[in-house]
């Protein structure tokens, strides 16, 4: 596991040693940091849902109003629980988000938007361009954020199809 590690060594009773080793954060750590930063920027009257996609898409948190510390903490805890494993079912993730934004939980006076973070290339599940067209039909904008090795053309097409925007971060340092 990457992160900051402290290693302690003992010599004779008159000495003790500490060695701190810092390694760069993983891409998932950087994505989690960026998601928490985004949550902090959102207002109390905003709603947020959190989904993830690997081999399949999962709704980790239904649309939640960000009006209390408990709600914000709950979403942040869900962000913290994300674990990267398997493929990149980007289209399935968009579909799941489309369904949540079209549910009864969505406030009728609120804009519908998806922020899609990815560090991969679609390789499993439904076609993300088809799902982007479905989002457009439901008046949902998709903002794509790619970092690392991604398919720029697909992420740009998804964003352009829905009236959103594509942003690219070549490194974890630039992600936030």
**Strand elements, count:** 7
Low-pLDDT windows of residues = 1-7, 19-23
General form: globular
Strand content: 25-35%
Write down the oligomeric state.
Answer: single chain
Number of helices: 6
Please, could you describe this protein's structure?
The chain is of the alpha/beta class. 36% of the residues lie in helices and 28% in strands. It contains 6 helices and 7 strands; from the N terminus they run ββαββααβαβαβα. The strands form 3 sheets. The protein has a 3-stranded parallel sheet. Strands 1-2 form a two-stranded antiparallel ribbon. The two termini are 22 Å apart. 31% of the residues are buried.
Question: Can you lay out the helices and strands and say which pair or pack?
Answer:
Elements: E1 4-10, E2 16-22, H1 27-41, E3 47-53, E4 57-65, H2 69-80, H3 90-101, E5 112-118, H4 128-137, E6 140-147, H5 152-162, E7 166-169, H6 172-175
Parallel strand pairs: 5-6, 6-7
Antiparallel strand pairs: 1-2, 3-4
Helix pairs in contact: 1-2, 3-4, 4-5
